[in-house]
Amino acid sequence: MALESYGIDKDKAHPRAIELIPEDFFWSCINELAPFGSDEGDIALIDYRAWRSKYKVLSLLACLKWVIEDLAEINLTDYNENLLDEKLLESQIADKNFNDHYHIYVVDVSVMATGFGQLVDEGKIDEEGKPIIQLAIDRQQLWAKLSKNWVARNEYIGNLNVLDRALKQA
Questions:
Q1: Does the predicted model carry a pTM greater than 0.90?
Q2: CB-based contacts of 18, cutoff 8 Å, min separation 6
Q3: Between 153-169 and 107-122, two packed helices, what is the crossing angle to 10 degrees?
Q4: How confident is the model at residue 4 (pLDDT cuts 50, 70, 90)?
Q5: How far apart are the C-alpha atoms of 144 and 138, rounded to whole Å?
Q6: How far apart, in whole angstroms, are the C-alpha atoms of residue 37 and residue 156?
Q7: Interior/surface letters 67-86, b for 16+ CB within 10 angstroms, e for the rest
């Protein structure tokens, strides 16, 4: 897909992406509960497309590494299953000095939007990138479950379930 394409656009998407995710929420540029509907998801899609235009032959994993190391300021190897520890997430949410919105939500949404950006533009998600995207989905599901008083929690978890299904089929 050309870099001139801005934002998520079902009319310009790869047919495989439409087949795997026909749900309307996925294609929304304004639904905050959609991969590309938040500012973070929109920016991640823009960044992915710019990265892809520069690095046409590199694997998605290289882009995910760049996203994680830039945003989370951790090594890719530290973005692992340990982040799914429920007690860790509970303590991070409860810690007033820890910005869970940024360090969990922004990072994970950026990872998901990057991975699903490849699906939208290329009709596939590179196999080596799938475990990283799966971790982001899983952590978002747990984060949403643990976040109290969030009206849209069930809708968000439902959307994440769609992404989980599509990732497994991509």
A1: yes
A2: 10
A3: 40
A4: low
A5: 10
A6: 12
A7: bbeebbeeebeebeeebeee
